[in-house]
């Protein structure tokens, strides 16, 4: 009997799983019967951005947390597919920090070249999952959002590829219900134009806060205040930006902070993170974790401990993204098909514990980059995924973090070298701070009226910085 594999989600993780099976097929292997369910009308997950917030046209929670004018906040060279380079897709070098639409075009390009769209049922949402221990089969109930029809599908293996940056964590603050301005979570942020001339409070101290805050600065906000729970981000912020300890309470438009200071604000953006939320799974199969580099209960960060027919992709915090999802998908594929034989439950527990202990001892971001590089190395070495220089990528990640510390508004103007092709990225025609048109057409086809001919920084092949 042919192995039946169900995949929930056709974002970058689900697309990676489809690509992994297609790669095996092209190499002459018999592959399972595959069905992928995607609740949106197109694939791409987060990268398939929408103007909508809250609920979509079908009354389903909006998936994407991306927004207008979002540019990559990490070098594209750190996420490049080894079997489909940026050079291959675009036919020429592009800059190291492209906007969302450019990266969406890139990941779609590989999937379309692989001819895996035929496996995906779009506008179809997973509703319920059960597992029969006797037959070792999953029953997955899905709904066709166009017709409202529900159907049951039987699978031998189930892959959860829905991501974990879509269900906001929304804390409560005393008095916030009296705040007269706009209050929203980063998940519902769609553009900073409306914050022009406004005093903006960002609650949070991670990537969302940093990026939306500087987006607001770019779009003319009068001031940006970051309120942190544990530690300030500590970047060399522009003059209109400060960091304060956590908000203790609100009184009207006034926010009071733990250090005794206070400020008047026009809007509040909660950059307070996301929950692992899998409403289509029963509790005994649902991952419960903070946003960490190595969640517990997943062998190799992929295989569910209590049921090795269940797999999670992209369930961890991420320095690597697209290429890590590939490594996970190739590993999951080989476990499903029996190419990789899993050790005993006890051995898997010991392996998970080894990674968790190492994670607990990580002293800084540089060590975290090395940690995830070593994790991905294990996955790649276990499969036939094309290897690449993970140490070089880890160093690139460290360089990127250093550039952010020295120039939070200019790090996206740096260029880096691909570890896949050796190509040095081109300089974008416009500095990020002055680039107001983030469309694919404008990005690729030349400068607009906001072109900036000032000095741009270049990361040379030996890692030194030159001005041009």
Tally of DSSP helical segments? 9
**Separation, N- and C-terminal Cα atoms:** 62 Å
* Total number of domains: 3
CATH class of the largest domain equals Alpha Beta
Q: Pairing-aware structural class of the strands and helices?
A: alpha/beta
Describe the sheet with the most strands: 5 strands, parallel
Q: Could you estimate the helical fraction of the residues in percent?
A: 25-40%
Shape: globular
Give the integer mean of the pLDDT values.
94
What amount of the residues lies in strands?
15-25%
Task: Record the strand order, biggest sheet.
Answer: 3-2-1-7-20
Number of strands: 22
How would you characterize the overall build of this protein?
With 468 residues, this protein is α/β, with parallel strands linked by helices. It has 3 domains: 4-166 and 274-392, FAD/NAD(P)-binding domain (3-Layer(bba) Sandwich), CATH 3.50.50.60; 170-270, 3-Layer(bba) Sandwich (FAD/NAD(P)-binding domain), CATH 3.50.50; 410-467, no CATH class. Helices cover 25% and strands 20% of the residues. The chain is built from 9 helices and 22 strands. The protein has helices at 12-26, 86-90, 100-114, 207-218, 322-337, 345-360, 365-381, 390-406, 440-445; strands spanning 4-8, 33-37, 120-121, 124-132, 137-144, 149-155, 157-160, 167-168, 182-185, 199-203, 223-228, 241-245, 247-251, 254-257, 262-264, 267-270, 274-275, 298-299, 303-304, 310-312, 457-459, 465-467. It has a 5-stranded parallel β-sheet with strand order 3-2-1-7-20, covered by helices on one side. A 5-stranded parallel β-sheet has the order 9-16-10-11-12, with helices on one face. It is globular, with a radius of gyration of 23 Å. Mean pLDDT is 94; it is low at 448-468.
